[in-house]
Amino acid sequence: MTAPLHAPSSERRAVLSLRIRLLAAATITYNLIEAVVALWAGGVANSSALLGFGLDSVIEVSSALALSWQFSAKDPERREHLTLRIIAISFFALAAFVTVDSVRALTGGEAAQHSTPGIVIAALSLAIMPVLSWAQRRAGRELGSRTAVADSKQTLLCTYLSAVLLAGLVLNSALGWWWADAGAALVIAGIAVREGMEAWRGETCCTIPNVIDGQAAEGDDCCAEAGDATRRHSASGPATE
After folding, report:
1. Of 72, 71, 70, 34, residue with least CA distance to 54
2. Which neighbouring-strand residues pair with 211?
3. Which listed residue, of 20, 106, 128, 207, carries a Cα 20 to 30 Å from 79's Cα?
């Protein structure tokens, strides 16, 4: 039987809400830089993959802005449903664009040129995005915020796109395989649709408030993880962050 879970104290919730807002601000800042570099490099190199990656960064910004809007309210839970819808729609928009752009690139056979700036920004994103996603997901689970967890998944999706982009750019530059990134991007589009459907239904992760008679749902590892973090915090006393 899973041990009883206790929701975070009001002081801890304030700390976690601020942390999520700061992480969202960091995501917005980096993605704006990423979008500018990717769109510019994509235009110069005639790379549909880079252009798609840049537009994905714009969608990432919209998702992070929606999350910031939610947590700017005194009662963020009241805005959770609408924010989840916005995040889900951004997933669907990303999937639609990646699919159309990939098919166009595959059928058109347009060869992109070598792009050093594109390779650099893809490598940086591959290193930075997993860290931002992990931090946001951890805070979201402890707070019990489905929107924070959903947005962390979209940030993680950007990591997959970064890997696809980097592989495509390197293979194109080294071997002339212009079709590699477009083909792999179609797989990412499928992942985006799945994540969008989960966000639309609110099935991002079990959250701390999801308890039955003081007990967590049986076999829910996500709940267990969140509960362990909460119990450790309760045992150590009030937050001092």
Report:
1. 34
2. 216
3. 128
